[in-house]
Structures are given as structure tokens and as C-alpha cells.
Amino acid sequence: MTLSNNPALSGEPGPGGTCRVCGSKLAEGSLSCTNCGAAYGEQNRCPHCRSVADVEPSEQLRFRCRVCGGPRVPVDDARVVRTGREIPLLERAQRARMKSTAYRVGAGVVAAFGALSVLVSLLVTSLVNPGLWGVLGMLMVTSVPFVLAALAFGRSRGQARELAQALDQAWALVASDVLSSVGRELTSGELSKALRVPEAEADALLARLAASDFVHARVTEAGDLAYSSRPTERMRVGDSTELPATLEGGDEEAQGEAERRDAAKIER
To answer: Which residues have C-beta within 8 Å of that of residue 102, sequence separation ≥ 6?
Structure first.
């Protein structure tokens, strides 16, 4: 049986909305099986390895593909139509992660050689008196690996920042896809359920989108914040992966927006 004909690898559920792996009935609107964890639908297709698979939590990537380990943004709502605008950003995040890891490993290896050279130098000086200039020369030679390790570690941190920025932008674009697809106002609680993140993170994400004019926010009669997507003509950036400077720049704008929203809720 070829891979394309293997029912267990199909991207869609079985007849009657059943799981093709274990045969359990899928919950209405669900994209994964609660019994065995099998995932279905294009929303669960990995942009890196193209497998239809679920994700798992990752400390560095937030969520990663269970097949290839690449960064992904999960969406647990069958109604959401993903535009794919986040894919270039996720690919950029994957490259940044690999570079950060490589620089960090390189820094560790070079630092280990530096430590070894220090031990050798100490052994030499204990057996032979190299004189002042000899000691200074050994110090200069043994310091080179540590300088290179520091430079590599700095590069690793720079790539880690690049990774975080790409992930922030990717998540913002997916959140805007959720708002556009649902076609009604959403609360941070509903968005947190769709994206598998804590409500506080969903609220901060929506605040950043509102601050950058991606979404409209209002206080409901119950005192809750509700968010909706902007009209199409106001979201000309929707066809691009480039985000406004306020959204790229970050957390300070988002925090200020969140504080203003909270103040509005208190006043009501």
C-alpha cells in the first residue's frame, strides 16, 4: 500500500467523522481525535514537512510539529481559513533557531578548547619558567578561544531574538485570520481556546493587534473586551507578511494598549 492510499495518513477524517487511526467518533468541529491524538484537516498541515500532524508544546518555539519539530501555530477551530501569511515567518523562525543552536554549540566547543589550553599553559609554567614575555604570550594565546566563544554566544543571542520576533509576528497574523474567519466579535477567552494559549497571552496578542489597527476593540455591556477584524479596505497589509512597526516593535505598545482597555473596563 502506497503512502497516498494509506487511510491512516489521510488528511481528512473517515466516513461519518470518525478517526481513521482508532475509529473513534470525532467531536463536532474538532480537528483531532481525543482518543489517540491523530490530527486532520489542512489547518494541521505542517508548513515545514507538509505532514498532517498535531503539535506539542515547546519552551523555545511555543508549539512545534510532532513530526519534524518545526515551529507552528495551532488553530483548534474548523471554521478558520488560514491565509498562510505566517508561513514565511515560521520558516524564518526555523532558520533562526538552527543558527542560534549552532552558534551556542560552537561557543561551548571553543570555550572547552580554551579551558584545555589554560590547563596546558598552567602545566607548562609549573615545569618550566617561561619568563615574563612567555607568560604574556601564553595568556594572549589562551584568551583567543574565549574571545571567539563570546562572539559566537553573542551571535546565538541575536538569532534567539530574531526567532522570538518572527514567532510574535506569525502568531499575530494567525490571530487576525481567526478573527476574519469567524466573522463576529471574539473575546480573549475564545481566542485562547482556538490558539491553545493562556487567556492572558491571548489578551496581550489582541491588544497588540488593536494597537496596530489590525482589529477593533470595544467594551461590551457586561464590561468585557470584544475584538473584531477591521474592514478589508483598512487592512491592506493583509496580503503581506510585513506587519506595522507598532506590531513589530512590541511589548511596550501592547502593554499601554492593554492598560487603556483595562481602564475603560473599570470606568464602566
So the answer is: none
Cβ–Cβ contacts within 10 Å for residue 200, how many? 11
Single-letter code of the amino acid located at 8 = A
Rounded to whole angstroms, the Cα distance separating 193 from 203 reads 12
Q: How far apart are CA 122 and CA 133, in angstroms?
A: 15
Q: What is the pLDDT of residues 138-192, one digit of tens each?
A: 788 888 889 999 999 999 999 999 999 999 999 999 988 888 888 777 888 888 8
Structure-block grid coordinates of residue 58: 515547546
Distance CA 34, CA 36 (A): 6
Percent composition of the chain: helix, strand, coil (DSSP 3-state, to 5): 55, 10, 35
Enter the DSSP assignment of 79: T
pTM of structure: 0.73
Q: Which residue is listed with cell 487603556?
A: 260
Which residue type, as a one-letter code, is found at position 69? G
Alpha-carbon distance of 268 to 265, in angstroms, equals 5
User: Dmax of the chain from CA atoms?
Assistant: 86
Residue 48, Cβ density class (10 Å: 0-12 exposed, 13-18 middle, ≥19 buried): middle
Residue type, 251: D
Q: Are 247 and 214 in contact (CB under 8 A)?
A: yes
DSSP-derived letter for residue 13 is -
Rg of the chain over all Cα atoms, to the nearest angstrom:
25
Report the alpha-carbon distance of residue 21 to residue 58 in Å, rounded.
25
Q: How far is CA 7 from CA 17, 20, 42, 127, 202, in A?
A: 13, 6, 16, 72, 36
C-alpha cell at 177: 485570520
Nearest-angstrom CA–CA distance, 166 and 156: 15
